[in-house]
Specification:
It is a single chain. The protein has 25 helices and 19 strands. By secondary structure, the chain is an alpha/beta fold. Helix 7 (125-139) packs parallel to helix 8 and helix 14 runs parallel beside helix 20. The chain starts with a helix and ends with a helix.
């Protein structure tokens, strides 16, 4: 039986005597209550469901055995931290999860003393835990440090860089390997096979793989059974006196809710409402159609085939579909190498995760001028996942790389045409787009050519990059007409690289306005300002402010952080209405 609401709140908000002295039966009841709270909240607010449902017992057991916040826990990725938040000082605010001004869906140091390190990308927890432990040792402090890492993250190369330094740092931490066979997609690869073998009878060679790094392997343990977890964690805690310990815990993603257990990929991230049309669906459709007649087309992803619309491609062309796991740098070099052998790779990835492969974009792909197409999903502000997931830097960090073409479609129809165009384009190409959009219509697309959407005799032209900013340009146009009866020209600035120098040189307007769903520094506005330098034209650039965008709905982020209609309108009226 779940605890009553009063009992649940009491145990959630008191991590002392009640939790420490609770029976296994009471802890199981607490887990049921916590799981129900997570499900109800995510159903309303959106968020990561299956990963959190699977980690409830493990998190409760950790809070029982260790003393947080004195002890420190670092969650790899961090999207599985909901139970931790409920068990710390945020239970009464949990209904604000991922809402503007509410608590984050990821660990945040500024939010609570129970969060010792901000996470959001895979593979960072072990390095962070080792750094915290080394600082502890230097201060001669008594606390324990725990890194909670999913098996999907164990594929990431940064994990092994950290393991490589374990003996050098002469420190001790507890590594909890939360093995549920999943990242966002099913976990694949050699590391997964080793873990799969360890689920059954322990194989000495596989255990030695971990122990050679200088840690003690323990497990596997059923991570959804409190009765098994508590003694295993107590034993691991005791072993920390002598060794760094890896405790292998096997959990079920979506545990406790049959629909989530049977569909962990579909319930990994849940939105509070049905989305509009998605660019990812168009990507999958177009790549499948192209691949039918072009055997050189290959799709590459880093553990996100479903989220990026590639599931049908993977099923239709399994020999040409490559999922490398959460290894974004490796995927980039792999795509480059495929291209050197005459293949046509399409590397689909979220904007925020492409940042991890910056060096490989420059050195391996663009440096060799290889025909790799980056399909950059979730570009621009992404909303409720917060700072670590906002895709607002890609136009800036891609804007100066030689040999790279950067495209920004105005709608899904134009995106489709860019994908078709890319099949015969033999140079590096990046196409960046938001999650949702309108199908719309599109005319001819040529590399490096803008599209004039509306031309008038006004002295102001708006160069808008991407669907959101074209929509914003139309709103500004209507507002100026209402305020002072003035019109503006609007241009679809659909290529950041190369710029349409011919069109830009021919525009007669004195005032040039740029709009981009990207930080203002280094993106479209900077490129246009440089182009017009010394021309006598005034360039007004609008993008996101020089801050990390918090979690909030996209329209609110645009309004508050640099792309608000009234703010931009106030600037334009200085020139249009005089």
């Amino acid at each position: 039986m779940p605890l009553s609401e009063e009992e649940t709140i009491k145990m959630k908000n008191n991590l002392g005597r009640e939790l420490k002295n609770a029976s296994v039966k009471q802890l199981n009841s607490l887990c049921e209550s916590l799981r129900s709270t997570i499900y109800e909240t995510v159903s309303h607010c959106g968020g990561h469901l299956s990963s959190n449902l699977g980690a409830v017992e493990l998190t409760v057991a950790l809070h029982r055995v260790f003393d947080f916040p004195s002890d420190k826990i670092v969650f790899d990725v961090g999207h599985q931290c909901y139970t931790h938040k409920l068990l710390s000082d945020r239970a009464e605010r949990f209904d604000t999860l991922r809402k503007e001004g509410g608590i984050s869906g990821f660990p945040k140091r500024e939010e609570s003393v129970y969060d010792c390190y901000d996470t959001g990308h895979a593979g960072t927890a072990l390095s962070a835990a080792l750094g915290i432990a080394k600082a502890r040792d230097l201060a001669k402090a008594p606390y324990q440090v725990i890194a909670l890492i999913g098996d999907g993250s164990f594929q990431n190369g940064l994990i092994y860089e950290a393991l490589n330094s374990l003996k050098l740092l002469h420190t001790k931490i507890l590594i909890i390997l939360n093995d549920n066979g999943m990242s966002i997609s099913p976990t694949l690869g050699g590391v997964h096979e080793v873990l799969d073998e360890l689920h059954g009878e322990r194989k000495l060679d596989d255990v030695a793989l971990f122990e050679r790094f200088g840690l003690r392997y323990m497990g596997p343990v059923n991570g959804n059974e409190i009765g098994e977890l508590l003694p295993a964690l107590e034993e691991a805690k005791e072993a920390l006196n002598e060794d760094t310990v890896l405790l292998h815990v096997v959990t079920q993603k979506g545990h406790g809710y049959p629909f989530s257990e049977s569909a962990p990929m579909q319930t990994h991230g849940v939105g509070p409402k049905a989305p509009k049309s998605e660019y990812s669906a168009a990507l999958g459709e177009e790549l499948c159609a192209l691949a039918k007649n072009n055997p050189k087309i290959v799709a590459v992803t880093a553990a996100m085939a479903d989220s990026l619309g590639l599931r049908n491609f993977f099923e239709s062309y399994p020999d040409r579909a490559i999922d490398v796991g959460i290894c974004e740098e490796h995927a980039s070099v792999l795509a480059a190498a495929l291209a050197t052998q005459g293949l046509k790779p399409y590397y689909a990835i979220y904007s925020t995760f492409l940042q991890r492969a910056f060096d490989e974009i420059i050195h391996d792909i663009c440096g060799q001028d290889l025909p790799v197409t980056f399909c950059i999903d979730r570009a621009g502000a992404t909303g409720a996942d917060g700072e670590t997931h906002q895709g607002v830097f890609d136009l800036s960090y891609l804007s100066f790389i030689p040999n790279l073409t950067v495209a920004i479609p105005k709608n899904i129809a134009e995106f489709r045409k860019m994908i078709r165009l890319s099949s015969t384009y033999m140079h590096p190409l990046a196409i960046r787009y938001p999650r949702e959009g309108e199908e719309g219509e599109a005319g001819t697309v040529e590399i490096g050519k803008f599209e004039v959407l509306h031309s008038t005799m006004s002295d102001i032209v708006i160069l808008a990059a991407g669907e959101r900013c074209i929509r914003l340009a139309n709103r500004l146009q209507n507002a100026l007409r209402e305020e002072c009866g003035k019109d503006v020209s609007i241009v679809n600035a659909r290529f950041l690289r190369p710029l349409d120098r011919e069109l830009l040189s021919s525009r007669p307007e004195k005032f040039v306005v740029t709009l981009e769903d990207n930080v203002k520094i280094g993106g479209l506005g900077a490129s246009i300002a440089q182009f017009y330098q010394g021309s006598g034209k005034t360039v007004l650039s609008f993008g996101y402010d020089d801050v990390f965008l918090p979690h909030a709905e996209v329209p609110s982020l645009m309004e508050k952080y640099g792309l608000g209609v009234q703010k931009i309108l106030g600037e334009l009226m200085k020139y249009a209405c005089r």
